[in-house]
Amino acid sequence: MKHTADRTRLGAALKALRLQKGWTLAEVSRRTGFSVPTLSKVENDKLSLTYDKLIRVSEGMEVDISQLFTPVHKPASITGRRSINKVGDGDLVATRNYDYLYLSGDVTRKKFIPMVTEIHARSIEEFGELIRHGGEEFIYVLEGKLEVHTELYAPIVLSAGESAYIDSTMGHAYVAHGAARCRVLGICSAAEGELRQVSEGLRIQDATQSRRMRGKQAKRVARRR
Predict the structure, then answer these.
(1) I need a labelling partner for 201 at 20 to 30 A (CA). Which of 5, 23, 45, 182 fits?
(2) Range(s) of the chain covered by CATH 2.60.120.10
């Protein structure tokens, strides 16, 4: 079975390499010394080659021998997907630390998730526990200055026009540096459902903390009376 599978990969790879170079079977024959019928049989998975003959083929075609066994990937079909975001569009999720504006919500099963985020926290102490989720993310500062905190690296400050790319499974937090407004464009490779769960969890946590604070304040007022 393995021999048949190797021969199949060889035939497809040989043909793909030949077409990529724009060569005919006759040209490959001239370069390798193998007859056109022999090469045709190899391409159509009717004939296998010994190692010394494979070396002749790779040298004649000016490729590494490993390329003769590299799986041939068919080009992906064009999906034609497109999404336009006008000013004011997007799905806003507000939390204590961030306001997430999810973009292109009309596109399902996205490969990456675009969002514009406004940063509220002004210190890592105010931010609280670092966030973790699947995938990787790219952050580009649109406005203001951003402090990037991660569990494995020292904090760094980025200005408008600067960016960072990080592993999202590493604990991380974005904090506004200074008093000015801070907004960033984020692109995340995690599943949108996971990201929304994280942001929704933060929103619920913020609401719970707010209720607790109001409860404590009410108790203090009652004691004073």
Answers:
(1) 182
(2) 91-224
